[in-house]
Request: fold
Amino acid sequence: MSALSPWIEAYLTPSRSALKFATKATLAMVLALYVALLFDLDRPYWALISAAFLQIRPMSGMVIEKGLCQIGGTLVGALAGIVIMALFAQARVPALITLTLWLMLCAYSSSLLRNNFSYGCIMAAVTAMLVVVIGHSQPGGVFDIAVARLTELGLGALCATLVNALLWPTPVKEHLARQADSVVNQAFTHAAQRLEASDDADAMQQSLTQSLEPLTTLEVDSQSARYEGPDGAGRVRATHLLTRRTLRFFATLRALHQLLLTQDSHIEPPLKRLASDSAQAFYDAAEVSGVPAARERLQALRHQAHAYPEAELVPLQRRLLLGLREVLGSAMIMLDAREAIAHPGRKRLRAGALSWHRDHLAALLNACRAGLVFSCLAIFWLQTHWSNGQVAMLLGTLFSTFFASRDNPVTICMMFFKGMLFALPSAFLFGHVLLSQANGFPMLSMLLFTPLFLGLLGAAKPQLMGYCLAFTIFNILLIMPGNGMDFSFDSFANRALAVIVGLSVVVMAFRLIPGLGATLQRRRLVRAISRDLRGLATPPLHEAEAAFSGRMADRLLQLGHHDTMLPEEQRHLFMIGLNGLDLGRSCLRLRHRLDDTAPPVRKALHELLAVLAAAFETSARGGAPQGIRVASRALDDALATHGGIPKDWHVLLEGLVERLALTLELQAEAMAEVITERPQAGIR
Reply:
């Protein structure tokens, strides 16, 4: 019964939001079809598919952004198709080879880009494929074909945007505000658990995951806010700031938690009380939805932490106090960012955009897979001269690029395959048996959009989206509504066979070439962090800070996402990323203090930074870090000889390096245990 519960909930007790979503998407498609039939466009079903795709995330800014990317990608693809046909109008094989290279380039670019810009690259691939493949049967009408594809897709985008703006508009700003609340509240809960030195790893992992998931969604979706008026740019900046500060918050908390656990017997009682009071304040702040109430208590604790006497504390305890101050300061900035996301006019925050992590090897593999899928289908089409081979190539091009960046492409493909199988009897009954008897647009709409509405109603539920969205799309492709519809069974069977062949080739391609795999992807992320750490010593300080912070934020989100896909006992990747962020920020802090000192001091500093970067990579593989304390003593000797910093900060430097060494040693122990007991989950 539990397996059926999502279907029962979707269709017997649909939510109001699901009914609104299905109604808006259906009306957008009805409007697109009516206008397409009115102007006698060649393939009106492309306008329907365009409108359906744009309504998947029906928030105003997202629909506008996706529509612009879709039209832009279609325009670029149409121009590429025209150029290919201009060069090889009478040479089909060279044209298809050139088209394959273009599709691979689009798939490669799509894998490197994010958000709707990736979708724009996919549309550039699909449009070029349609122009070239259809154009070879009509060499004199290539330009008309390109204009027709652009018109149909543009019409769908326009109708979706219009309906979305007029009927139950949902601003993306409300969605972002809810996500920001979830991020901050769960992060504060995690902070409380860390500061009370909890040993409940499951509870800490749960609060961490529940903060990271909306943080990832928030960062991805925030770009759409710029299309919702002049305040949109402020929301984007506030989101970038919240992302960076939250991840820095987690990194500092992890370091504090380790100190609280390992140095418990050496921590002075007043300092313990300050940590305990901070934990309770974070619990209280996590339970309130208003910023002022949370700010008041945390601000008081921050003043208390800054007033705490630190002169008599040993280095590690001073690091603990400084960490508490930093955590409370980050919490205040997170509250400011949350308020700026909800009300940009009240806060003017400055934050640079993130530098995305781009895995060129994974992108190249995705491009090769997409090229292989299209090549196989193109060869089959050339050898058989099958008229519906174009449909198979269309699906192969679309889905081999669309699913390539997903975490489980084979699973998603199989969900689409099952949705397609359900669409076969539906399309035959509604689109051929009943629709052949229809007369006039009202009857056509009633018969055509009944299964589409049902599919969209189920697609509003995330667990069913793969099945129901496929059911909707394949109903459109199998029926292909237009002014000159062919209701013969042969035509339907040919299209059904083309759909099955195209999707089957995509499934086989993902099974034969499954991608880099989660283990290798994680391994490459850790190596990328190590490479960034090694590069912190050379560029100007402001450039090093901007590049490292931006890339680390994206990599941490990816590592956290990988962790959520693993069993709880194997979730160690985000921990490694947090240690890398903490280590990088500590290295940058050392540069802030020592960049203007004597050359021997800077040389010793660079050697220490290189040793720390190598120790991070070694400990991430389960090996004991080497040489940290030796390099630290060399820096101490250089400072003693050449001076350059106050004696008080010299003590803090000693505590900082000791804490980093302790962190990497604990990481090495944890990873050695993971690799020994679960070698398949290791990163070596």
